[in-house]
Amino acid sequence: MYERILVPLDGSKFAEQVFPPVVELARVFGSEVVLVEVCEPEESEFGQACRLYINNEAEQLKKSLQGSAANVRTTVLEGKAAEQILSYAEKSDISLIIISSHGRSGIAPWSLGGTASKVLHRVGVPLIIVRAKEAPEESTKVALFRRILVPLDGSERSAAILPYITELTNKLESEVVLLRVVEMGKHVHTIGGLNYIPYKDQDIDKAKTSAQSYLDSVNSKLTGAKVTVKSEVRVGDAAREIIRLAAETGCSLIAMSSHGYSGIEAGINGKVSKGITEGSSDDYIGRVTTHGSG
Shortest CA distance to 112 belongs to which of 282, 268, 256? Predict the structure, then answer.
């Protein structure tokens, strides 16, 4: 599942913060790492500079991967960054994209950079977005996969992330925290507009029991050689509870499908995914997302 990793760079130190997790994954899976830089139309005159930069980064990465089966190659594309990244990933049998949340345009609070945001919403392969920081941690201290939060909503789409978690935990020592959020009500369309209808206490209690049973069944199927699994059911807004639990448990990675479904069992849907991706604090180093099926 991690045979070929695509790593977009733009010449900035923010974009280069992806390298610690790239090295960690590539070493254990023996991955081929493809470094890509996109020269946009107005930058065509700098094509040679792009090639020199990307080749230099490749040489540095090769040194970090010495002694492993991983290998590195480079490519320079021309066009709009997000479109070229997505097109290349589709045509080149890419298994995973690892991209920084921000690049040379700088860090804007509470949002993703333009390229990362566009890739997130249109990508068809698994994606890790590394949260860029003004003052990043030393690479020796970063352990992206040490503790992983996995929000689920009971749907097949949200469960699409689980094979990727199993693959990770077969190779990397990790603690997985499973989460199911039960919402306290739902929005329904009526003649007067969109109304919020709270659930009855007994319905919420039933949903909590059902949610815990579901997480127990998932727990029994996570059989990674180096994994320990915990689970938790919470009541409230899905995005807020996911972010809160990640902070409380020190999870460095939120791994989820970008689309689930809404309902009494708390939908982890596209809106929730967007809220987590753009609303979480800089304490979270990254997240991996897959669009699931259907």
Answer: 282
